[in-house]
Amino acid sequence: MNRKPTAGWQVFNGFNVIFLTAISLVMLLPFLNVLAQSFSSSEAIVKGEVLFLPVHFTTINYQYVFSDHAIWRSFGVTVYITIVGTLINLIATASLAYPVSRPEYMGRKAIVIMVLITMVFTAPLIPNFILMKNLHLTNSLWALLIPGAISAFNFFIMRSFFLQIPSEIIDSGRIDGTSEMGMIWRIVLPLSKPVMASLGIFYAVSHWNTYQSAIYYLNKPTLWPLQVKLRQLIVSDDITIDPNASQFSGLAHMDPEGIKMATIIIATLPIIIIYPFLQRHFVKGMMVGSVKS
């Protein structure tokens, strides 16, 4: 029987709508301001005339960014470590989480405890740097990929998902003569699309926003990811405009804020575009571990 909502419930529901709308605007409006500045003229930005809509609309900022080889090189580095790093993360995490989720594997409890310890006690920076140096990983993109191959938090999420796979399915595969690798590839992974998509988003966003590790381990500007290049633009005003370039004539003596904002948009947009395509799996993966049989 449907009950009519009480006055208290309607007030509470209305308060929730107002509160969540306000929170959404707090998160959205700064992005709209950056987007508006990226399409505005330098004069309007310097005078503080830009709020949420472009003033003196122009695409010159994006033209500069697209013509800057250093920014594109950093963008390529970020795309590379995001794709390769996410694949390494998912393979390594699944390779560890699956065995410790099956009751027939000995020593799984000890491994879980060791992984749990790493969530409580983390290695200091200096020993980490010395380790990377002794392994000859400094000034190499592998320094951004190997140390964080397995996230303890994501490991427990994936292990929780694997625990929900019925043992009967695994046993039936073994009875049919399927090898362990074949069973993982044909049975376990197809059932694990939600958790793989969810953790893939977590890992990909982490790699896309790589900053501290690059600062610590990379001294070559040619290896800097996009976030480090963006920091260089914002903090040091390291923007050089060729006054002889006809498309940038008139920008040589202007404020570079618009170029910075265009770079921020380019650094943020790919993740925003990719997320809707994985949202369905992401929502399913968020329920991993919430229901136990």
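The record above closes out task 2.4. Task 2.5 opens with a second protein, given below.
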Amino acid sequence: MTLDLLPIGQDARIVAVDWAALVAEEAQRLQALGLDAGARVSVAHRGVFAGRDPLAITVGRMTVALRRVHARAMQVEPV
């Protein structure tokens, strides 16, 4: 399953990231924030408008706003 489909509040671990699907600068920023294979994440909130962007993703003690297209590039498994 991809991160954008993870139910709110469900803990998961990132198992793979399709870095080629992202712009290089965006991929580098996400890696700097700790969003890489092995990271434990959860969806805290989804946007309310038509695209349901952005997603609020919890990574450790930090909450990061993430566009749905970026979350779609991350494969996760529930833990």
